[in-house]
Amino acid sequence: MTYEETLEYLYQRLPIFQRQGKAALKPDLHNTIALLDALGNPEKKIRSIHVAGTNGKGTSCHAIASILQSAGYKVGLYTSPHLKRFTERIKINGEQMGEPEVVSFVSRIRPVIEKINPSFFEVTVAMAFYHFAKEAVDIAVVETGLGGRLDSTNVLVPEVSLITNIGLDHQEILGETLGEIAVEKAGIIKAHVPVVIGTFQPEIIKVFESQAIAKNTTLNVKASRYRITSDAIDGSDRNISITDGRDSLEIRLDLKANYYLKNLPGIFEVIRTLETKEWKILPEHIQAGLSNVTGNTGLKGRFQQMGASPLVIADVSHNQEGIEDLVSQIKGESYRKLHIVFGTVQDKNVERILGIFPPDATFYFTHSDVPRSVRANDLLETGKKLRLNCDSYENVNVAKKAALSNAGINDLILITGSTFVIAELEEL
């Protein structure tokens, strides 16, 4: 098969959450284990960092990988979903897995796929671990897909685990309350593997404490000791000072999103934990890594500027808490009028999310090609119900073009609501 035929096989043959939602999920790790067994158990041949959470896990993974790369290590990075190319999911030192390697892997594992019918995500996880082991990475930074306890990545026994912020998202799968969702995320906690809690949330900390006790491991909540001060954003960068009361670092961040600042304490504590395990990471490696996350890893879509006059910002925030943080930052920007290009998927509370945005904005509703997307006309109906100034458009690029034609040079255009909508931006 060619690379294009291989991808078509994966997309058509395997259940995929992005297209089918909950129906694509497998209720246990049996398929992942079977795939990895057939590959000689590559997950046992790599050292790793495992990251779960509702918001912040993707940026945390990229930042940690960037720091480790700057320290001279060969670093695997597995994240999902991809924005433009399938191979974005699997990188080593920022380089995407090659197309020939994808074809070779699928050809090798196809008999097992045909036998056990795994999900798309299960196959991509096995592909990543096989690639990392084959290429002998020093360490792999691995993001969970959904939840943690039953996530395919949860076969790893990592050097350290990180659990970022817990919020209300995917409730139809993970549970209705923060406590129920936290139980699923806490499922990545392993015996004798230290776990860092990136955001101290008093209402759910007991969930993590009880799981750590059950697994006889150390629960690290020291991320709460860090204090961050931030200067005004200068061009494409942001200057910050971060201290834990003992040491302090001055860093010029290349990521401008305010919500990223919430992730930094957890990122720092993961690095501190690795240092206790004799990984050699110096302050200058942290500074270099955090100043060039996008360059080192290819991260996109996090408060990414796509135009200046008018200012155009694209951001993958897609749940209530993420949108709240994004809107808070937007309100701090200087602009005359706000234009919002928005699309989302079917498991979100659309009315609640739309209620977060300034009601005097002009809305350009759209949808992606993903079947789970809420159709633009349905969003328009909801927008009119909320008495918003709105219209609908067939795709994000048409919506963006309409916003640009309506906006003045001092206006702001925000494109957000769904990772899949951002992924279809032609200039991203």
Main attributes of the structure:
17% strand, alpha/beta, 428 residues, Protein-Tyrosine Phosphatase, Chain A, 17 helices, 8-stranded mixed beta sheet, 2 domains, UDP-N-acetylmuramoyl-L-alanine:D-glutamate ligase, 39% helix
In short:
The protein has helices spanning 3-13, 17-20, 30-38, 57-70, 99-116, 120-134, 171-174, 178-185, 205-214, 258-276, 283-290, 293-297, 320-331, 350-354, 376-385, 396-406, 419-423; strands at 48-52, 75-78, 90-92, 95-96, 139-143, 160-163, 195-197, 219-220, 227-230, 238-243, 248-253, 304-308, 311-314, 338-342, 362-365, 389-392, 412-416. With 428 residues, it is of the alpha/beta class. Helix 5 (99-116) packs across helix 6 (120-134).
Give a description of the structure.
- By secondary structure, the protein is an alpha/beta fold.
- It has two domains: about 5-295, Mur-like, catalytic domain (UDP-N-acetylmuramoyl-L-alanine:D-glutamate ligase), CATH 3.40.1190.10; about 305-425, Protein-Tyrosine Phosphatase, Chain A, CATH 3.90.190.20.
- About 40% of the residues lie in helices and about 15% in strands.
- The strands form three sheets. It has an eight-stranded mixed sheet with strand order 4-3-2-5-1-6-7-8, sandwiched between helices. A six-stranded mixed sheet has the order 12-13-17-14-15-16. The chain has a three-stranded antiparallel sheet with strand order 9-10-11.
- Strand 3 (about 90) and strand 4 form a beta hairpin.
- Helix 4 (about 55-70) crosses helix 10 and helix 4 (about 55-70) packs across helix 11.
- About 45% of the residues are buried.
